[in-house]
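A note on notation is needed here, since sequence and fold are reported together in a single record. The reader may check this reading against the record printed directly beneath this paragraph.
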Amino acid sequence: MSPKNKQHYESKEMVHEVDRFVDGLSKALRTKLRMPSGFNRVCICGMGASAMSGEIIADAVMTSWDIPVQVIRFTSLPNWVDELTLVIASSYSGNTKETLMMYDQAKAKGCRIVVLTAGGEIRDKCLRDSNKLIEIPGNIQPRSSTGYTIGYLANIIEATGGPKIKTELMKLIPVLRKFRGSIWMRNPDSQAKQIAERIHGTVPAIYATGPLSAAATRWKHQICENSKTIAFNGAIPEMNHNEIVGWSEGVSRTKCRPVFLCEDEAPDAVKKMMDESIKVLRSSGMEPEAVTIEGNTALERSLKAVMLGDYVSLFLASMNGVDPMDVEPIRTFKQKLAALLGRKRTDKRQSRPDGKK
């Protein structure tokens, strides 16, 4: 098989994985779960797509649950995490070093722990420690497991007696399937294709208000990984207090393209802030891309925005002539990080005063 044909084949594989976002979400929601109880806060630990999925769920329950939910993207847990905290450690590969470190800390603190993974070291730790394990199907790209992760997180929240977010998502499955048909690669009139054509060749900076902020992060992740194009994301109204100056006068701004994710049912104050941001940039000679996300609820709009961004990234990958499956820099970094952290642990054991290892 020639490199060209192989690239074409792998691109089709990535398209298939993105197409199955709703299928993964549906399967995770239909799974019956029994969850630990007796906690007063939730801490979702993860990186990349795992953390983004957690942010969507945290945003969805923020105004309907008196238990705080926080997403941690780091190597250390906050001091407020204790034995009354439900820690959800999410790592598709099971070998994400940052998440493994947080898992170990959660175990030491006596937290209630749930693990979301397709395997790896964290699965072994979870089974050994007799913690709750939820297994995600393997053999897909980690960023393609988002449907499963969002579904299982919603399932966990409802199974613990929290808001009926699983029930709400179940009702959205037919809506999301229909939306997928309007934006996927096989639709010549796909909105995703039209957006990709307008932002192609630029550095996109994706902006959104609170309910769509996690989706804006997902756009950045997918454009970077799938289309091999650097992208950034920010939030409204925060950008109006700093970044708007760079957009208005910055020397590099002509290489970039602001993209605004706009909710069609946002509160009036939010709509006015978004509209004014766009007007200011246009008056400065910029051509912002305004993308309207429709939906009856904030959760519906958030998931539609995620799906739209995934397909935009695939169209961009096709336009760039790159393989969306290839993420060699990430693999290389993880290998080096694992070697570095392993070496540090060995050094600490060897430097004990009593000489023991």
Remarks:
- The chain has 13 helices and nine strands.
- The CA atoms of residues 53 and 150 lie 5 Å apart.
- The longest strand covers residues 256-263.
